[in-house]
Amino acid sequence: MFVQGLPGPSAGAVPAAWPQAAPPGAPAVPQARPQPAVAAAPQQPRPLVRAQMPDEPAAPAPRPAIALPTPEECDVKCPPRPAAGEPDWAAVHARVKALGAVCFQVEKLAPGGSRVTCVLPTAQAGRTHRIEARAATDAEAVRVALEQAEQWTGAMK
Fold first, then answer.
1. CA distance 10 to 13
2. N or C: more exposed end of the chain, with fewer CB within 10 A?
3. What would the pLDDT profile of 55-96 be if each residue is shown by its tens digit?
């Protein structure tokens, strides 16, 4: 029968780096362990550690203000602003809607001037409250009628 051996040292050989076992009955002799050959490096000073936060970073420089062009500079057509003495009809309609008006009417009177009529709902079903104001201009008649309507709705609350 053929037995194949493992590659390496022969069966009875022990590497030199391994400690040899003492024969039975002989006192054990301590063997010095081989020390790695390291050059003695000089001791470096230990780093100094402080328990303190680092300084706050400097605030970035403020950015210059941005100037936006007007709509007219961008060729955007804006609705015309009311002329002096004309009411701002968008604001008038917003106030009328906030009052909950059922009807709002502006009339030109024959001798000159304007009449504004505003009909507001009441707490009773099927009944309304009518407010009427007359003035020399539309703007003045609208202003008076809306003031009266707001006073009346404020008194009803």
1. 5
2. N
3. 788 888 888 888 988 888 888 887 777 667 678 888 899 999
Is residue 72 within 8 A of residue 78, CB to CB? The reply is yes
Query: Whole-angstrom distance between the N-terminal and C-terminal Cα of the chain?
Result: 119
The model's pTM is 0.48
pLDDT in tens, 119-142: 999 888 889 999 999 999 888 999
Q: Are 102 and 128 in contact (CB under 8 A)?
A: yes
3-state secondary structure the chain: CCCCCCCCCCCCCCCCCCCCCCCCCCCCCCCCCCCCCCCCCCCCCCCCCCCCCCCCCCCCCCCCCCCCCCCHHHCCCCCCCCCCCCCCHHHHHHHHHHHCCCEEEEEECCCCCEEEEEEEECCCCCCEEEEEEEECCHHHHHHHHHHHHHHHHHHHC
